[in-house]
């Protein structure tokens, strides 16, 4: 059977009953007027007796609990309902409470205590001789000491005996204060020892005396001063100790990351419990969160501690630790302002909450943003300047590239050391728990290892890794673009050289052998025109295959006639009207001109035979003579033959020399349309 009550109404109601339980005859929602001669009050149902205003009120609570527990221990009891339909119900209490009737909050507290106990023991087993591990294990043991008793009395069905309740409450207080002492001591010795053991023992002794005085109900006026206030002070001590460690580890980024992780876990989790459970009790305000479910925060705390001990990705905390703590601080401040306005200004709850929210929005959040800008590491180089600097690196000589690249990295990350990396990663990687950043090698630049960023005050974060990946990609793209530009310029120079050798050489040779001044002038004018075409890469494009072949036939016959060589010219094409691309027409002219020039200069032939055929879009040119033929010993190819081969390869064609017996046979195959292959 479960009861519910509202303090302001002084009415206790039956919330629910177990269908198979002894109180199944009670109607849910009925007002309970009495249990035998005992008149229940809403205060009898509180899950935590520490909300009592004074020790006198707490003593009265325990007396009523003891009286009610004696009634419940009887063979029978009479529950009288109130209201217009008052009725008396005789209930026979069961000998024991079924385990299935225990609420979820009971199991949350039990499982949280077990989990923290196991994690604390695990850490202690890993580092038995370490005082920090011992203190963490003590904190893990303290949580079940105050969680298990709280699980029992906070989920009681209605009442417990006074003696048992007092023992459970004292254990709860002892465990809570022990946890606070252990965590303050932990932050005073880890990662750096800030105080002596004598100070730690003094802290434990003073806290123990406070617990004894609270247990015997002496000196302090009530639980708020005897228990809640010391717990809040210990929580403040945890925060102060964390800040002291944060300052002490300013030159040790790994230790600072560890303390940041522990501080975040403890302040966020334990601070939430203190803020939403203990602080409201301190101000006499009913907590808005059930104490049983609030214990989940201690389980999360120790999970965070376990992650911290494993040193798992501590460097990732940098990007969101400040946000978590600052928003948590906003919630705590909102709660404190709300409580203060209700307690000291006597405002209603809605008005107090609205005013608190307004103060947080207008004062706290702007201050938070200002602090975030002050604490956030600023980039030492803006993106516009960075782009210009990266381009300068790409355009620099090989000897200067790495030095300029190092200067960019030095200004961007302020590392204490930049050294060549032993292993080259595929992309930037964070190493050594954030102490180092490994950068891949980029064309012409060796892989690098950056250590201790921001002059050793921080660790490398995922944001730093992404920034490094961006500038590496930028530099790689700039170097690739530079190489492509240089390759294009080289290819253009080679093209101009080939064209001048093949076309202009052939035409100047024809002009040299020309007997008439008019023909000589014509050839020279055509040579000048070809020179313009070579520079502009136009190369007389835009003609059909028949037109190009007709021009070549006239030119070839004139050149060979001037050299005293006969010609046998035969052409067989599938479609002579096909338009040739400029580069195809230009290559065809250059190839035939070079072959004819070689025949005039070197072959000693009396006759030259030219065969040009097309089939399935492929052209086949065969030129043979009756001259000397191939030499008996291989000779080094000159620019002419090399140019021929390069031109045909550019068209995805082939080039071959053979023995015509007698004479030389030159064969060339290439596609008439761009994109085809032979």
Structure in words:
This protein is an alpha+beta fold and 678 residues long. It folds into five domains: 2-96, PDZ domain (Pdz3 Domain), CATH 2.30.42.10; 104-317, Rhopdopsin 7-helix transmembrane proteins (Up-down Bundle), CATH 1.20.1070; 320-376, no CATH class; 383-483, no CATH class; 539-671, 2-Layer Sandwich (Heat Shock Protein 90). Helices cover 58% and strands 11% of the residues. The protein contains 19 helices and 14 strands. The strands form four sheets. It has a five-stranded mixed sheet with strand order 10-11-12-14-13. Helix 4 runs parallel beside helix 6. The longest helix is centred in the C-terminal third of the chain and has 52 residues, at 462-513. The radius of gyration is 47 Å and the shape is elongated. Residues 312-317 have low confidence and may be disordered.
Find the CATH topology of the largest domain.
Rhopdopsin 7-helix transmembrane proteins
CATH architecture of the largest domain: Up-down Bundle
Alpha-beta classification: alpha+beta
What's the average pLDDT?
A: 81
Shape: elongated
Q: How would you classify the quaternary structure?
A: single chain
Number of domains: 5
Helix content: 55-70%
- Please count the helical segments: 19
Order the strands across the largest sheet as they lie in space.
10-11-12-14-13
Write down how many β-strands occur, each being a DSSP E stretch of 2 or more residues. 14
Through-space gap between termini: 93 Å
Strand content: 5-15%
Radius of gyration: 47 Å
Largest sheet: 5 strands, mixed
């Amino acid at each position: 059977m479960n009861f519910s009550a509202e303090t302001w109404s002084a009415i206790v109601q039956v919330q629910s009953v177990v269908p198979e339980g002894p109180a199944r005859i009670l109607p849910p929602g009925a007002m309970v007027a009495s249990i035998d001669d005992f008149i229940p009050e809403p205060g009898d149902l509180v899950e935590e007796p520490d909300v009592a205003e004074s020790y006198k009120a707490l003593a009265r609570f325990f007396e009523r609990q003891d009286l009610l527990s004696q009634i419940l221990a009887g063979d029978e009891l009479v529950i009288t309902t109130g209201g217009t339909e008052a009725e008396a119900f005789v209930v026979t209490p069961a000998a024991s409470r079924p385990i299935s009737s225990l609420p979820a909050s009971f199991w949350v507290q039990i499982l949280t205590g077990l989990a923290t106990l196991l994690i604390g023991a695990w850490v202690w087993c890993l580092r038995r001789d370490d005082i920090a591990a011992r203190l963490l294990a003590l904190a893990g043991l303290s949580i079940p000491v105050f969680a298990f008793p709280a699980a029992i009395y906070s989920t009681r069905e209605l009442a417990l005996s006074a003696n048992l309740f007092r023992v459970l409450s004292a254990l709860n207080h002892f465990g809570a204060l022990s946890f606070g002492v252990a965590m303050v001591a932990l932050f005073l010795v880890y990662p750096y020892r800030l105080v002596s053991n004598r100070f730690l023992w003094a802290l434990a002794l003073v806290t123990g005396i406070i617990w004894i005085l609270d247990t015997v109900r002496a000196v302090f006026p009530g639980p708020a001063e005897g228990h809640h206030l010391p717990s809040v002070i210990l929580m403040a001590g945890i925060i102060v100790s964390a800040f002291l460690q944060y300052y002490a580890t300013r030159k040790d980024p790994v230790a600072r990351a560890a303390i940041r992780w522990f501080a975040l876990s403890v302040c966020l989790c334990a601070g939430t419990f203190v803020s939403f459970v203990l602080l409201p009790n301190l101000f006499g305000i009913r907590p808005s969160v059930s104490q049983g479910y609030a214990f989940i925060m201690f389980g999360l705390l120790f999970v965070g501690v376990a992650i911290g001990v494993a040193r798992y990705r501590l460097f990732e905390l940098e990007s969101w630790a400040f946000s978590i703590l600052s928003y948590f601080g906003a919630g705590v401040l909102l709660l404190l302002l709300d409580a203060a306005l209700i307690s000291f200004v006597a405002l209603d709850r809605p008005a107090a909450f609205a005013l608190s929210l307004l103060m947080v929005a207008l004062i706290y959040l702007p201050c938070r943003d200002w602090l975030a800008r002050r604490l956030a590491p600023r980039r030492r180089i803006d993106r516009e300047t960075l782009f210009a600097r990266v381009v300068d690196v790409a355009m620099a000589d090989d000897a200067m590239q790495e030095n300029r690249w190092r200067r960019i990295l030095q200004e961007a990350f302020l590392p204490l050391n930049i050294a060549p990396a032993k292993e080259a990663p595929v992309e930037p990687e964070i190493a050594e728990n954030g102490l180092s950043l490994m950068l891949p090698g980029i064309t012409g630049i060796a892989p690098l290892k950056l250590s201790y960023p921001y002059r050793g005050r921080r660790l490398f974060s995922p944001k730093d890794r992404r920034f490094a990946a961006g500038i590496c990609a930028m530099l790689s793209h700039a170097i690739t673009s530079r190489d492509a530009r240089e390759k294009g310029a080289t290819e253009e120079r080679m093209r101009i050289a080939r064209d001048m050798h093949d076309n202009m050489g052939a035409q100047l040779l024809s002009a040299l052998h020309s007997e008439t001044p008019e023909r000589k002038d014509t050839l020279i004018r055509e040579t000048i025109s070809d020179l313009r075409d070579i520079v502009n890469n136009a190369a007389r494009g835009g003609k059909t295959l028949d037109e190009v072949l007709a021009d070549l036939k006239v030119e070839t016959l004139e050149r060979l006639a001037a050299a005293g060589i006969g010609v046998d010219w035969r052409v067989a094409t599938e479609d002579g009207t096909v338009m040739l691309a400029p580069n195809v027409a230009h290559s065809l002219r250059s190839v035939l001109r070079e072959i004819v020039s070689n025949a005039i200069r070197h072959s000693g032939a009396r006759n030259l035979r030219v065969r040009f055929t097309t089939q399935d879009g492929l052209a086949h040119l065969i030129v043979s003579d009756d001259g000397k033929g191939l030499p008996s010993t291989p000779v080094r190819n000159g620019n002419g033959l090399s140019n021929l081969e390069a031109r045909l390869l550019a068209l995805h064609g082939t080039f071959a020399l053979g023995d015509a017996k007698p004479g030389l046979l030159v064969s060339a195959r290439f596609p008439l349309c761009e994109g085809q292959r032979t």
